[in-house]
């Protein structure tokens, strides 16, 4: 007998994914091997360093958390797993801690579970977990992942090559509604001047290199949740900024620090880990703006002005004391942000001057406010046919494909595009023009995410 709809929705409300379905799936399940076939033939030798896997969570769904742990145990050679450390960041979900304790004692005695004595937020919780770890390498995972075949070997092999390599797997997608495991394309990490992480596509030339399908790719930033790093190096490099709260910013901070202070950050195409991407964070609290300010003040030198230009509400916000982190930058003798942009992220552009019509838009269910400015608005006219681009369905319909229709330069919102300071194009100032590269290049409407798949440039100067 199924649950009444009321209870099905409860799972969505608590977790922003289909918990009802997850509870019905086994915690051990086969998933598609999404690696390139060349990866399947590679081997990495015997003497790989052992890893401590650190997984922090606040109010994670029991079935999803267990599936994360089981996937690690079932798809890694056990001699490479020094330990799995679960950090319960002061969850208050009924029975979660009790059920987990019982399950681990009964079935998984090697998995360590520690609970924090107050809500630390994911950044401090990770530092707490890293201090308990004793393996040679630290691997952080979010609590809603499934690792794929041979995910761990290529990460560890890269760290064996150099302890200053920080290795990031390709993040596949576990669909939040259907729980299907879907491959994602190979992209790099970047950021926009609102200090949001974004995915940047690789230049076409990348695919022409022999071995491109398995060779590590230098990445200016990482998404933050999944990476492997030599444990002693993590401490040497200053762990995380523990002045940061709950969520956000630590991924860019660590990325800048790695590159500017002598390390390397790489995406490893042969390592694949699925992650549930949610459209909304279901738990309370967020430190994004304050955390980003700390990052900008410590690491970005004069370039902080572009952050303020993009996000004026940050200018007068309190961000706490940063003297320790500034001292760390000095101690480690780190390079300038200009060096980082010139050498590691040359494709980054600076925001153009913007007009003063600030459009403050609330994203999803008021999770955060993004300051986005409109540069101009108008129709997108196809030169050949003289037709205009519009949404196939409603302007509010996510995933809607786009079609060409007779231009209606009136107030019909269905054809009015807003170009913003984020370099994206918003239909009726709502959803963004996005390219889906997973199933071939299709243009569609999606929530604005600041990702590389939503950045557009003009091909000729006067073509407005
Ligand atoms: C991404 C990262 C995430 C983190 C974040 C920026 C991936 C896959 N995820 O957001 O790891 O870097 O960007 O900060 O790259 N959690 C706690 N305590 C809290 C809040 C969250 O332990 O107070 C846990 C949470 O249960 C989850 C992890 O931290 O396991 C990351 O949180 P998220 O999944 O909400 O973040 P995500 O994936 O949107
Ligand atoms: Mn996550």
Automatic annotation (TrEMBL):
Its cofactor is Mn(2+). Its EC number is 2.4.1.-. It comes from Pomacea canaliculata (Golden apple snail). This is Polypeptide N-acetylgalactosaminyltransferase. It comes from the Eukaryota. Pathway: Protein modification; protein glycosylation. Residues 377-464 form the Ricin B lectin domain. Gene3D superfamilies: 2.80.10.50, Spore Coat Polysaccharide Biosynthesis Protein SpsA, Chain A. SUPFAM superfamilies: Nucleotide-diphospho-sugar transferases, Ricin B-like lectins. GO terms for molecular function: carbohydrate binding; Notch binding; polypeptide N-acetylgalactosaminyltransferase activity. Belongs to the glycosyltransferase 2 family. GalNAc-T subfamily. It is an enzyme of class 2 (transferase). It is found in: Golgi apparatus membrane.
């Amino acid at each position: 007998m199924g649950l009444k709809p009321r209870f099905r929705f409860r799972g969505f409300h608590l977790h922003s994914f289909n918990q009802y379905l997850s509870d019905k799936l086994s915690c051990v399940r086969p998933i598609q091997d999404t690696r390139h076939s060349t990866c399947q033939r590679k081997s990495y030798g015997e003497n790989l360093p052992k890893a401590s896997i650190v997984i922090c969570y606040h109010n994670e769904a029991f079935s999803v958390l267990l599936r994360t742990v089981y996937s690690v145990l079932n798809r890694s050679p056990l001699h490479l797993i020094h330990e799995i450390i679960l950090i319960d960041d002061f969850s208050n979900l009924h029975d979660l801690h009790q059920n987990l304790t019982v399950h681990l004692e009964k079935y998984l005695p090697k998995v360590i579970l520690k609970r924090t004595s107050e809500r630390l937020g994911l950044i401090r919780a990770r530092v707490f977990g890293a201090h308990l770890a004793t393996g040679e390498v630290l691997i952080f995972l979010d609590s809603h992942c499934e690792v794929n075949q041979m995910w761990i070997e290529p990460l560890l092999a890269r760290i064996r090559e150099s302890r200053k390599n920080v290795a990031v797997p390709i993040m596949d997608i576990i669909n939040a509604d259907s729980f299907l495991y879907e491959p994602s394309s190979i992209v790099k990490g970047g950021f926009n001047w609102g200090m949001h992480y974004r995915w940047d596509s690789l230049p076409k030339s990348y695919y022409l290199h022999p071995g491109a399908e398995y060779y590590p790719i230098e990445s200016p930033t990482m998404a933050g949740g999944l990476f492997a790093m030599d444990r002693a190096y993590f401490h040497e490099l200053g762990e995380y900024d523990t002045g940061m709260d709950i969520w956000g910013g630590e991924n860019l901070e660590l990325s800048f620090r790695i590159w500017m202070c002598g390390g390397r950050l790489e995406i490893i195409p042969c390592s694949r880990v699925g992650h549930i991407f949610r459209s909304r964070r279901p738990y309370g609290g967020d430190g994004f703006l304050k955390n980003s300010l700390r990052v900008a003040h410590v690491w970005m030198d004069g370039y902080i002005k572009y952050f303020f230009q993009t996000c004026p509400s940050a200018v007068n916000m309190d961000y706490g004391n940063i003297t320790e982190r500034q001292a760390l930058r000095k101690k480690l003798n780190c390079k300038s942000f200009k060096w980082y942009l010139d050498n590691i992220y040359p494709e980054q552009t600076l925001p153009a001057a913007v007009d003063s019509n600030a459009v403050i838009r609330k994203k999803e269910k008021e999770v955060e406010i993004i300051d986005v400015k409109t540069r101009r608005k108008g129709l997108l006219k196809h030169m050949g046919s003289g037709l205009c681009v519009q949404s196939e369905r409603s302007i509010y319909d996510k995933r809607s494909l786009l079609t060409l229709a007779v231009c209606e330069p009136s107030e019909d919102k269905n054809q009015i595009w807003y170009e913003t300071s984020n370099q994206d194009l918003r239909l009726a100032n709502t959803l963004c023009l996005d390219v889906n590269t997973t199933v071939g290049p299709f243009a569609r409407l999606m929530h604005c995410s600041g990702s590389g798949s939503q950045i557009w440039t003009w091909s000729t100067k006067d073509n407005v």
